[in-house]
Structures are given as C-alpha cells and as structure tokens.
Amino acid sequence: MNEIPPNQDEADEVDNRYRRESALDPSRPSESVRRAVLEHATQLAAERTAKSGPAQLGAGRPAANPRWWRPTVFGTLAAAALAGLLIIPRFLAPDAPLFGALPTAPVQPNAAATAASQAEIREQAPDAMAGARRQSPPPAEEGALKPRTSSRNEATVADSAAEIGAKNSPAKVQRMTNAQSTAAGGGSEADARRAQTGGATGIAASPPQSAAPMAQSAAPAAQSPAPTAPPAAPAVQSVAPAALSAARTTPPARLADPAAEVRRAAEIGAVPELQTLLGRQGDIDARDESGRTALMLATLHGQARAVDMLLAHGADPNAADAQGVTPLQAAIAGDRPAIAAALRRAGAR
Amino acid sequence: MTVTGESDETLMGRYGRGDAAAFELLYRRHEMRIWRYLVRNVGNRATADELMQEVWFAVARDAARYEPTARFTTWLFTIAHNRMIDSIRTSRRQLSLDTLGYESESVVGQLTADPCSGPLAAAVARDQAGALLHALERLPVEQREAFLLQVEGDLSVEEIAAVTDSSFETTKSRLRYARTKLRELLKEHA
Predict the structure, then answer these.
(1) Model pLDDT for residues B129-146, shown as the tens digit of each residue
(2) Is B35 in Cβ contact with A28 (below 8 Å)?
(3) What domains can be seen in chain A, in order of their start residue?
(4) What pLDDT score was predicted for residue B59?
(5) Nearest residue in chain A measured CA to CA from B74
(6) What are the φ and ψ backbone dihedral angles of A46, each rounded to 5 degrees?
(7) What pLDDT, on the 0 to 100 scale, is given for residue A336?
(8) Would you say residue B81 has pLDDT above 60?
C-alpha cells in the first residue's frame, strides 16, 4: 500500500478481491461484546465528566493542569507587574505631600511612591506606623477591602496603588480607592471617604496583611529591598521589573517524585534540567501510571535531544508501556524517523 | 452537529473529555476491521470475542491519556496485536493450519452472497469467498498477520513492522510472500 510490492497490479488484485469477498462474510462480534464495550465506555465517560466538572468551573486551578500552570502563573504575575507599571505613575505627582503621619520620614519625591520605600519608611518610623495602624478601621470594614481570591492579583495592585496614593494627595486617594474597590469586588464608599480624609487613614485602610499571598511569595523582590534599598533610586520604575524578574526567576514548584520530574523534563524537552536530574535520579526507567518511561514520553512528544540524552544515560530502548507499545513503535507511529533511528542505534527492536 | 466527518483523533479527544457518543462512533467505525483482524488471525470466534472486548476496554480506559502523536488506527491495531500475542502466549495456543481448519470451515459455510444476485451468482460468490478464506488460512501466521494489518488496518510497511516488532525488510518480505501465495492458491482453486 505505502510500499510498492513486487507487482502492484497483482497485489491490488489480491487486496481488492479480499475486500470484495470479505464484505460477504457475515461473521460479526457477538452482541454481548458490543454491549459490554459500549456500556463500559459510557460508564468511564460519565466518571470523566464527573471528575472534570469542577475543574472546568474552577478556572483558578492552574496547577491542576501540569502543562499550563507555568504559563498561567507567570502570565498573571507579568500582567500584574505591567498593570503596576501603567497605573502607579498616574498617582505620582511632584507636589504630593508626604505621608502626613510620619514626621521623621525623609522627603523623597519619587521613592515615596514605591513599596520599597514604604517598607523603608516603616522601618525608619516603626512607632509612627504603629500609631497609624491603631487608627485602623474596624475589622469588618477592613474585610471589605480585602481582595477576593478570584481577583487576587488585581486587588494587590490596587492595594499597593492605594498605599502610594495615600502618600501623595487626598484627591488621588479617591481615585485609587475606587480602583481598589473595583479590584476587590466592591469596596464601600465609607472606605473611600475615610481614605480621602488623610494619608494615614488610607494606609491603615489597606494594611500590609491584606496583600495577596501569591504576590508576596512569588515576587519577594518587591518587598525585600526594604532593609537595603537605596533611597534615591527611581523606585517606581524598579518595583514592577523587580517583581517581574522575581516571577521569572522563581523556581517552579518541584514535583514530589524525582522520577516524575525526569519524565516531565523529558516530555517537554527541558534538556538542561533533564541533565541535572539524571545526575541524581536512580531509576531512569521509572514509569508513570500508564507504564510510560521518560524515554517513551520524550519519544511521544518528539523531544529528540531528550531521547538522545536518556539513551546516553542508559535508558532501556525497549521499555514498553502498559499496552505493550515500545518507544520504537511510538516513534514510527508518530512519524519521527530521527528518533526511531536513534532508538534503533541504541538496540531498540 | 454531526460527528461523522470528524477524524478518529478528534473523536478520541472528545471521548477523553467524557463524550460517550464519540466513542460509540469510533467503535462502529472500526468494529469490523478489528474483528476481522482478530478472528482471521486466531481462527476462533470465542477467543476473538474476548480479545475484541479487551482491546476496546483498553481503548476506553486509555482515552484520557491518548495523545494524537500517532494515527489512531496504528495505535488501535498495536493494542489489538499485543492483546492477541498475550492471549496466545497465555493460553499457549499454537496457531497452525490444523487448529484453524474447523472453525474456518464454519465461517466459510456461513458466507452469503449479495442478496441482489441470483442463486448461481450467490453460489459462485460463496465459493470464491470460501476459496479466499481457505487461502488466507493456509498462510503462515506472520504473513497472514502482516497482510491483515495492511488490508484491514491500512497500515504502511513501516507501521506494520513497528506493530509486529519486526524489521522493515522482514515485514516487506512477509507481505510479498503473502500476496504471492494467495495468488497461487486462488489460481489453484480456479
């Protein structure tokens, strides 16, 4: 068919005759088999639907899908950082009064707008901050400003902006509080009025504890400059890039099973990571729940370099999966001749 | 929306997400091809029924993990081949002409002709179909399987080699010998 036999006409004649006469064969699988197969398939489909139902509803579960959680997390963080870059400068003004409740704070025209300088101010004037916190609104009203989990990142940006705005001017605080209310899913007007009355109150209305945990953990650079940040730095421009770079350099959550990490790296073709892991990993042919080794996964996904590396580290080229499919069969079936050749050189049958 | 025009791989994807109708369509699309491949290789209806069920159970079970990096039919026939080999090894049945003979006679006897044709044409067609099945039975197991994978599964030589764990040249030879012998046997019958 795909390969030319010795005599194509005769082969066609035989094949055509087989097909023609085969159609006359009434032999069929028994009805009970058909019924059993379809019932089994329907049952499995129902189970899958039941399992996947909550996952479809819960859009905020990036880690549930191992393929997409990285882009989702990094994308969200990058978007939050970008939003910060775009929004924060709008609330900076050269005539902005400094945080009124901090008499000892140094006057820094630009740095006052940053989270870094905010932390610095807190460190330099802990008593003043404590005083400001004592003016905090009741917990119920604080809760109204806390972001919901569904808009965590946006709320974090708005929280930061509100803090910054509070240090600049009451008029800007009003705008910031509106933004915060939107992001938080509906803040109260009382909060806005309270914020308008003074910077200290504005700070108190959005205490540091209200910041989203994700932003705190994934972008530590935004807060870490507090002890060492140079005061004269153009902080507004540095905060978001710092958060962005922190997000980029934040190592992804490690899988509990090192063999699973190897399979994952092989599957996505992360060769440097794979090389590191192979130095530590004991069983290179460890299998997943479908009986697939790292070599099989690399083959299925066409990761030729990962295949070469795994073979060089002694991976079994004939390790079949639970269905008995070997890497070579998978390579041929997936039309990956280079990988098939590499597997054959390694002794695959 | 009709699903009849969808590819096997698309249907598998849909079934993997819980669409039972997609599986039924896939099953009906490939039921007879797998059945003929199995029953003509093992020569026993009961065994073929068991294998048929095992193969499709495996397809249903692994649908969620199926990745369309290979043609669905290649994957399907690989499962069928492996199940068949496992079954043969487990039961230690040796496929030979002797063991195939009785069952295949009954299959031949059940062949019917095109209902639109007359009694003479029906008799001729029945006879021809019997000759073909007899010829197929008389092929060596490896040649018969390679031939069936090609005509029923539409697999290429390289795919058949991969499915049967054989080299490309060996598979090509098996196909060549299978056709040559079928042709000779049919000529003898004529």
Answers:
(1) 567 777 888 899 899 999
(2) yes
(3) 72-249 (no CATH), 255-345 (1.25.40.20)
(4) 93
(5) A333
(6) -65, -40
(7) 82
(8) yes
- Which residues, at least 6 apart from A11, have a Cβ–Cβ distance to it below 8 Å? A5, B179
3-state secondary structure chain A: CCCCCCCHHHHHHHHHHHHHHHCCCCCCCCHHHHHHHHHHHHHHHHHHHHHHHHHHHCCCCHHHCCCCHHHHHHHHHHHHHHHHHHHHHHHCCCCCCCCCCCCCCCCCCCHHHCHHHHHHHHHHCHHHHHHHHHCCCCHHHHHHHCCCHHHHHHHHHHHHHHHHHHCCCHHHHHHHHHHHHHHCCCCCHHHHHHHHHCHHHHHHHCCHHHCCHHHHHHCHHHCCCCCCCCCCCCHHHHHHHHHHHHHHHCCCCCCCCHHHHHHHHHHHCCHHHHHHHHHHCCCCCCCCCCCCCHHHHHHHCCCHHHHHHHHHCCCCCCCCCCCCCCHHHHHHHCCCHHHHHHHHHCCCC
Under 8 Å between Cβ of A99 and A118 = no
CATH number for region B1-93? 1.10.1740.10
Question: Is B11 in contact with B4 (CB distance < 8 Å)?
Answer: no
Regions of chain A short of the pLDDT cut 50: 1-6, 55-64, 96-253
Burial of B48 (0-12, 13-18, 19+ CB in 10 A): buried
Q: Which of A:206-265 have CB within 8 Å of B?
A: none
For the ranges A156-160, B50-54, B158-162, which has the lowest average pLDDT? A156-160
- Nearest chain A residue to B45, by CA: A29
Tell me the domain boundaries of chain B.
Answer: 1-93
Question: CA angle, corner A209, sides to A204 and A211, nearest 5?
Answer: 100
Q: Which of B23, B77, B149, B189 to mutate to test the interface with A (most CBs of A within 10 A)?
A: B23
**Distance (Å, rounded) from C-alpha A177 to C-alpha A206?**
10
CA distance A312 to A216: 42
| pTM, full prediction | 0.46
Quick one: pLDDT at residue A239? 41
Residue B18's CB is within 10 A of a number of other CB atoms, namely 20
Q: Which pLDDT belongs to residue B55? A: 95
